[in-house]
């Protein structure tokens, strides 16, 4: 059984949790101990540690995640009612591929049981396992990475934290519908890579673009299935990680806001946080990022694609080429734009689909400016 890959929590963590007050988060979660395993039917969010860091050449090869767990479980929850479990750790396998397989199996089983896995890595190449966990679900996958780099490598490269995206893009079965990078820094990416993102109709937002207007990231998360956070996207003065030194990046408030957007998204079904150095300093911000994701989860509104669009206000914007159809939720005031189903065409999406967008994109469309994300989605759909 796939849960045999999970080892129980360290006695140091269990002793620490035993000493917490009944109000702290650690006292309110179910733990995988040597005596007991959480009942899946009662869990909505599952925390998994993956002690695999071989893909990160600059990081410590051995990690234990004790510091981040102590920080997280010492925090106080909000007004939460979700049942949270810590399923323990997946130990590093004989090879990286063994660990990828174990995480894929565990994550896939949790997602099938309607449990959202929060994966604490480990190196960011573990994102590949989260993507592959959807193979059995037979659906197209949207991946969002908060990262200063695109993580492309040569086709012949060994999969690592800096090259895993190539494997995701080229490997069969190809279930990736969209990849979006949030927070890339141009000087860390070759022009060839930036051009490739455009050529594949993927989305990318520069660090300054997102820092100046953090809300532009919200529609992106609303369309994501997998969210992968690279701690190197946070500047060192805020993360506490000085190996490697990162002078520019998101600050603590911004990275927590992005995590909350990921939690609020009705569609996000797996979340990972990677490329850290397993230090006490960095654990403080990592714990807060996870806290904000769980906080966001409690503000989900079960809108499209889960609810009906009957109560949405429909706006039709005529343009020179075709009519654009927008929908606005009467509950949250959020916006979507319709990607039309092309008859007699090769549609990756099997029906008319709504793409999350912003009010600003609707206003731009009224001025005859086609939303770029809509255009890219339409192109990808018919390739």
Describe what this molecule looks like in 3D:
This protein has 383 residues and is of the alpha/beta class. The mean pLDDT is 92. It has 2 domains: 2-297, Ureohydrolase domain (Arginase, Chain A), CATH 3.40.800; 313-382, no CATH class. The protein is built from 13 helices and 14 strands. Helix 1 runs parallel beside helix 2 (66-73). The strands form 2 sheets. Strands 1, 2, 3, 4, 5, 6, 7, 8, 9 and 10 form a 10-stranded mixed β-sheet that branches. It has a 4-stranded antiparallel β-sheet with strand order 11-12-13-14. Helix content is 31%, strand content 20%.
Overall pLDDT, averaged?
A: 92
Radius of gyration over C-alpha positions, nearest whole angstrom: 21 Å
Tally of alpha and pi helices: 13
Got a strand count?
Answer: 14
Proportion in helices: 25-40%
**Poorly predicted ranges:** none
Overall, the morphology is globular
Sheet-strand content, in percent, reads 15-25%
How do the helices and strands follow one another from N- to C-terminus? EHEEHEHEHEHEHEHHEHHEHEEEEHH
State the secondary-structure class.
alpha/beta
Instruction: Please give the largest β-sheet.
Output: 10 strands, mixed
* CATH topology (fold) name of the largest domain: Arginase, Chain A
What is the CATH class of the largest domain?
Answer: Alpha Beta
CATH homologous superfamily label of the largest domain: Ureohydrolase domain
Please give the alpha-carbon distance between the first and last residues. Answer: 38 Å
Q: Architecture of the largest domain in CATH?
A: 3-Layer(aba) Sandwich
Total domain count: 2
């Amino acid at each position: 059984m796939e849960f045999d890959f999970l080892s129980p929590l360290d006695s140091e963590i269990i002793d620490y949790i035993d000493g917490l007050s009944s109000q702290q988060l650690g006292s309110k979660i179910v733990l995988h101990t040597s005596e007991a395993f959480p009942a899946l039917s009662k869990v909505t969010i599952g925390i998994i540690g993956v002690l695999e860091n071989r893909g990160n050449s600059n990081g410590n090869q051995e990690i234990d995640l004790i510091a981040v767990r102590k920080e997280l479980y010492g925090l106080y929850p909000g007004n939460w009612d979700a049942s949270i479990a810590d399923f323990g750790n997946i130990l590093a396998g004989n090879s990286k591929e063994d660990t990828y397989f174990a995480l894929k199996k565990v994550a896939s089983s949790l997602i099938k049981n309607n449990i959202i896995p929060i994966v604490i890595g480990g190196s960011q190449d573990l994102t590949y396992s989260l993507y592959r966990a959807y193979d059995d679900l037979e659906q197209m996958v949207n991946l969002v990475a908060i990262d200063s780099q695109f993580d492309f490598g040569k086709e012949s490269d060994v999969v690592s934290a800096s090259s895993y995206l190539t494997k995701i893009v080229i490997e069969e079965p190809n279930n990736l519908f969209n990849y979006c990078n949030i927070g890339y820094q141009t000087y860390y990416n070759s022009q060839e890579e930036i051009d490739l993102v455009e050529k594949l109709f993927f989305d990318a937002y520069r660090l300054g673009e997102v820092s100046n207007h953090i809300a532009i990231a919200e529609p992106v998360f609303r369309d994501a299935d997998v969210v992968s956070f690279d701690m190197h996207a946070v500047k060192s003065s805020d993360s506490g990680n000085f190996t490697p030194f990162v002078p520019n990046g998101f600050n603590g408030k911004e990275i927590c806001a992005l995590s909350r957007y990921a939690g609020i998204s009705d569609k996000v079904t797996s979340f990972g946080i990677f490329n850290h150095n397993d230090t006490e300093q960095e654990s403080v911000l990592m714990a807060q990022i996870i806290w904000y994701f769980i906080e966001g989860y409690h503000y989900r509104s079960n809108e499209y694609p889960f609810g009906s669009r009957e109560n949405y206000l429909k706006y039709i914007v005529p343009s020179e080429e075709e009519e654009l159809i927008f929908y606005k939720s009467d509950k949250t005031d959020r916006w979507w734009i319709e990607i039309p189903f092309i008859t007699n065409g090769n549609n990756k999406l099997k029906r008319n689909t709504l793409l999350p967008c912003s009010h600003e994109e609707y206003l731009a469309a009224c001025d005859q400016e086609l939303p770029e994300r809509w255009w890219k989605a339409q192109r990808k759909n018919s390739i």
